[in-house]
Amino acid sequence: MSSHDSQVDQGKSRKRRQAERIAERASVRLGPTLVKIVLLGLLDAFSVYSAFMLAARRSWYFMAAVIVVALVINWIYWQQGHLAAKYLTPGLIFLLIFQLFAITYSAYISFTNYGTGHNGDKEQAITSLLQAASTKVPNSPSYTVTVVQCGKDLGFAIANDDGEIQVGNAHTPLHQVQAASSDESGHVSKLPGCQVLDFNDLLSRQDEVTTLAVPLSSDAKQGQLKTSDGQTAFVYKPSLEYNRAKDTMTDTTTGLVYTDRGTGAFVAEGDKELKPGWKINVGLSNFTSVFASKQLRGPFGQVMVWTIEFSVISVASTFILGLFLALVFNEPRMKGRKIYRSILILPYAFPAFLSALVWSGLLNEKFGFVNQVLLGGADIPWLHSAGLAKIAILVVNLWLGFPYMFLVCMGALQSIPEDLSEAAKIDGASAWQIFRLIKFPLLLVSVAPLLISSFAMNFNNFNLIYMLTQGGPAQTGTGLNVGSTDILISMVYKIAFVGADKNYGLASAFAIVIFAVVALVSAIGFRASKSLEELN
Amino acid sequence: MVNQTQTQALRTAPSPGRSIGPSRWTRAGLWFRRTGWRHLVGIVACIFAGFPILYVLSASLNEQGTLISSNSMFSSVSWGNYFQLFHMPQQPYGNWYINTIVIGLLTAAMSVFLGALAAYAFSRLRFTGRRVGLLALILVQMFPQVLSIVAIYLLLDTLGEISPTLGINSRLALILVYLGGALGTNTYLMYGFFNTVPKEIDEAAEIDGAGHVRIFFTIILPLAAPILAVIALLSFIGTVSEYAVASTVLVSPEKQTLAVGLYDFVSQKFSQNWGLFSAGAVLAAIPVVVVFFFLQRYIVSGLTLGSVK
């Protein structure tokens, strides 16, 4: 009896414990709420900090953006409901900042002349022009200077004949200081709060010392002191003079007058430009020059055609080889299929940027394996002749891309029911007919979207081109830094970041054009394959 | 086994003369027509696929370390290049390696998490702008980040003035930039997979009193593990291979990734640095290849799922 009771009790308490556990799980738990408070707290702290920093820099738009975003995020997460927003916000924030904002900003840059020589606003350009254009004043008196470091900045200290000592650096003109002393040679030996550079310091910081210019007084026309040896300095004055009323720059040595003609730089007769200029809005001129300027239209057209050839041939060749191998291996009686498959997908598993570099070694003209061993010491310029480089790129991309197509086709083939081909066989169809009329159309239905995305991927296959040929061999006689194998995206990268003349505006204009092309091609492709119709 | 193949061969053999009992030659011919030629094709394809990798392995073990000496494959075997790799003051290979792994793993983990959150919303919740949102995601991800690289550079330059940890030459900033692409294709693939997880399961959990957070973490995520693994791997491989953005953001050598460091290293003195580069490439590829083969099954099913969906 009693034992039975205790059994019932035990059963009850087990059930109660179970119920409690479920109730506990169902109720709002402390953990997630704490996590939420901590994360939002961190975010708010960072937002407030950034807002202050931006206010200090007077970037009002950015400050407003930060505050609005922070408020919206807080509102979303402290509200009941709005579940979808709660799940979408984390990813969307990154998407908004680093994709959408970046795209919009690219669009904005594409309407400017931003790039080397056009980096800042007009005031910055004027200041740096005046500073850079300083020449030594003829018969300038020589000053005995001591190079000193006060805080982070290097400066000059000068003792004049009366024993007064003056100090100045690039930002503050020479001014008198107390409690300093100089030795008999006229060099300053002690300066409170500053360190006197000795000979070794001067040697190791030669570049800094020789570029240092210290204004003589707050009036810029008085000129600046510069030294070439860290011992003696001379007066330098700007050879340019800015006339604020007329908005012109005059070269005092030649008398040439440079005016602002709205091109983002001071220009004189004969289109002589002063560098640096400044950033201006150039409207559609980057876009029109892509299509209309003779210098750009030619290279752009070539690159465009090659990009399309490259993407189409790459997709087709990898698909054909992948499909062929999938058909070959789609035979249950064949032994060792797993081993073959493991080896065949090696190129897909090996990081792509390394593969391209390895291939550039294999195809090296003088020392590469292909020329030296396979072709017995031939001198074939695989990567240095326009035509061969294109072929090399296509072969390497075939190597890189066929395993993916092989895997996809294997999967797709196996999902096609066997009885379809059995039935066709009974009706007397040949193997080729079964493939052409039954398997291939079915396969295409499932593989078509992948072919489109593979096209888009190859269209922007920066790594392969840049690592294998760097877009080379170079084409001479074009207005742009483009080679014969450059595709659009590597061209954009090179215009923006490679070489001495960086043109951000033009690069961004190209980027927008490329985006339009890819979006258009993909839209047409997706429409054709109707793959998006399944979204519901 | 032999019997089975024989009978199968007999059944389909058209000529009546052979059905009496095939001679050794005709049997070999049959074998060749049936599967033998497939092996031939397979061997040729395997040489094409495997040779460059075998070559880089041999070059990494070649102690002379030049491009031309690497042509005589496996003529000398030493680990010298691998040791020297970690003793180059100008090229901190160890740092590159750690940077790549850390940046790759963090980006992959965060991408999967952010993508899964969004995919959950698209798959399970009904809200206005859902369909448009999905289409917009696909459209936006067609604009590769390399194209907006100028804007990203300028954006980070500005951010760096607020806080240097988010500016140019910051590894964290690079991760954040990569996370800009965390939605897009990832969400689309996961959305397809989440749809195949029966809704009844989370409805049952909801009746039992589980909240949406709980359903997401304890039901959806574990059930979708295969696709999460695929996305994580693809994202990891993509991040490891990425050159253009990384080379723009990461300036100083000790902060760079393998793609940036190794490329700059090998492009400086191409034919002399070959052995070292090869050793670096082999070490760099090992984690990716190992994980790839480990997850191979999921990748194949994930790829075809994404395509058939």
Notable traits:
heterodimer, A: 536 residues, alpha+beta, 9-stranded antiparallel sheet, 5-stranded antiparallel sheet, 57% helix, 12% strand, extended, B: 309 residues, mainly alpha, 15 helices, 72% helix, disordered N terminus
What does this structure look like?
- The complex is a heterodimer of chains A (536) and B (309).
- Chain A has helices at 2-26, 30-56, 60-78, 83-109, 122-132, 199-204, 206-211, 285-292, 294-329, 337-344, 346-349, 352-362, 369-374, 386-414, 418-426, 431-459, 462-468, 488-497, 504-529; strands at residues 134-136, 143-150, 153-159, 165-169, 175-177, 181-182, 188-190, 194-196, 214-215, 224-227, 232-238, 240-243, 248-251, 257-260, 266-268, 272-273.
- Chain A is α+β, with helices and mostly antiparallel strands.
- In chain A, strands 1, 2, 3, 4, 5, 8, 9, 10 and 11 form a 9-stranded antiparallel beta sheet that branches. A 5-stranded antiparallel beta sheet of chain A has the order 12-13-14-15-16, covered by helices on one side.
- In chain A, strand 2 and strand 3 (153-159) form a beta hairpin.
- In chain A, helix 8 packs across helix 9.
- The longest helix of chain A is centred in the middle third of the chain and has 36 residues, at 294-329.
- Chain A is extended.
- By secondary structure, chain B is mainly α.
- Chain B is 72% helix and 0% strand.
- Chain B contains 15 helices and no strands.
- Chain B is flat and about 70 Å long.
- Chain B starts with a helix and ends with a helix.
- Chains A and B meet through helix 1, helix 2, helix 4, helix 9 and helix 10 of A and helix 2, helix 4, helix 5, helix 6 and helix 7 of B.
